[in-house]
Amino acid sequence: MIKSQLTGDKGAGRRSITSRVIITHPRKLNKEFLKSVAEPFFRQGIHPAIIPRIELREKHMRYSTLLISIGGDGTFLRCAQLMHDGLSVPLLGINAAPDKSEGFYLQVPVTEIERTAGKLKRGEFYIEKLMRIAAVVKHGGRIKDSLVPALNEVAFLPIKPYKTGKYNIFLDGRTEFQISCGVLVSTPTGSTGWMRAAGGKIMKKSENKMQFIVREPYRGRLHNPQLCHGFFNDKMALKPFKDTMIAVSDSISKEMIVKAGDELVVSKGEPLKVVVIK
Q1: Domain end: 130, 162, 189, which one?
Q2: Same domain, yes or no, for 157 and 212?
Q3: CATH code, domain with 163
Q4: Domain range enclosing 76
Q5: pLDDT tens string 164-201
Q6: Are residue 261 and residue 163 in the same domain, yes or no?
Q7: Residue (of 52, 255, 31, 236) closest to 145 by Cα position
Q8: Is 250 a catalytic residue?
Q9: Cβ distance 102 to 75 under 8 Å?
Q10: pLDDT tens for each residue of 11-68
Q11: Choosing from 9, 73, 172, 243, which is the catalytic residue?
Q12: Domain count for the chain
């Protein structure tokens, strides 16, 4: 957790977090609903630009001070994936349908927008940094491709879900050949989702380490893998043995191809700045 360099309007000499605000949303939200969302901000003297999520680009955020994602967790994650390569705009999640959406990353229910707009204006918030995971494909020591940073997890998987993959795992000076349905690597916040469902442990948000779990490892007379679940701080490498594998970030990024001779390297990436209302 860090103190914000952005403030409410009381922050003399520093840029206000409300000076250049973008509200982004799924296209399915109707105009009347979006108008009702924007009006509390206008009443506070905040004049946000409203851009559908599908049209939102990095160029829109270069000079923005706050990005507000209204919708569900999917919209929030897609907004988070725009924050990379040095672009770091604080992100605030508003749950458009608390009765239907889990809203794990969405701190504010839509019913509290009026209160939230006032607190932003007065500077009653702080900015927290959430760990993300970086994943790159290397070949011959050179970076061949990369994923956008993952807020939840990076998944290393066989191309066909009903097949197993053969690969070598490299972690903390140890190497092991494995046959499995893939490997998940999660952040502390991501440990409550797919990682938990796969048999992992829920982590505290403050823990500064990543968790991995091997999905359905094959065990037999000649094969008894040991590196199947644990935690690490630095990096992990995964090298396909023969078959081509894929890697994906937060289940919504493009699929990155990892061929035999390549290695997928996962490590801590650029953190995500999120706004927490006091």
Answers
A1: 130
A2: yes
A3: 2.60.200.30
A4: 21-130
A5: 999 999 999 999 999 999 999 999 999 999 999 999 99
A6: yes
A7: 255
A8: no
A9: no
A10: 434 458 988 999 999 988 888 999 999 999 999 999 999 999 999 988 898 889 999 9
A11: 73
A12: 2
